[in-house]
Specification:
single chain; 352 residues; mainly beta; Methylamine Dehydrogenase, Chain H; 4-stranded antiparallel sheet; 43% strand
Amino acid sequence: MDLYVLGGVQRAERAATEEEWRLFERAVVGRVRPEAGECRPCASYDSPLEVRAGADSSVLFKSGAVAGERLYACTSTEVIVFRLPDFRREAYLSLPFFNDLHHVRPTPQGTLLVAVTGLDMVAEVTLAGELVQSWSATGGDPWVRFSPATDYRKVATLKPYRTHVNYVFSAQGAWWATRGDLGDAICLADPRRRIELGVQECVHDGWARGGYLYFTAVDGRLIVVNEATLRVEETLVLAEMEAGGPRGYSWCRGVLPLDGNCAWVGFTRLRATRWREKLRWVKSKLAAVAQPTRLCRYDLARRELTQEIDLESGGMHAVFNALPAETLAAEELPAGSGGEPASVAARVPAAP
């Protein structure tokens, strides 16, 4: 099965000095052909200046979703819907509260769920730009901390975040979101319901497959949760599956579980700026070799790395997630929104 990988191309002259919000010059979708062991670019994109903080702001695709013949992708400030397989742009959305988006996915109702990482919130929006509802990943009203009068697309970064909410997924008939910096996931309808993932490093994803939920941690661990109990069943250290032991380290983010106890996992090359940013686990590994940006297939039952595809050879320097080029068996998605159904579209509070 072919895959789409979402990420970006970095500015070569700034690779050692720039933070992520200025490092990437172009968003890219690559098509991975496992049988050929290659990745080829199939779409690239550059955000217009009016939705960027500045001319040197990063442009890259964060995590998205494939549904039917559509690819849903997001940059830091935009949502774009592409028609597959020719990548014709079918829909576009950019709202003033979009800041450091990390994930977009459609709902059965035709709306979109967007992880607005910069504002520590998840928003449900229509393609017409209406805000249906929103949830703060810290609890309470998401607009207490942020002003509707501000165009957050023009703010380069709002770090440090309180939660680093970064991925929306479904489990037990409800919508959930991972909170990267807190090492857990919460139910949007009832934040008291949590999945404690047992890691200190930033977690990502929440793919449902065969009764299990799969999460990654940036230090290269894969956490497997039983969807029925919402408890961790095992935590796998992916580097230990490499023949001969770990060869180096990289930023782990994005998992695509497959049938047959296999999974694809994406890795992005570590940079010095990443070492300074937040990673406790990297401090003991500064002398280790930084591995290239790549996509790896693991046999989880046999604990083996079975295939490795270099994405840098295909012009990609960061990878957020891997998606099937054909829609997998349908997830059991919530029948309604992540919270109580909204009879009237809720709007961003009026500016004072």
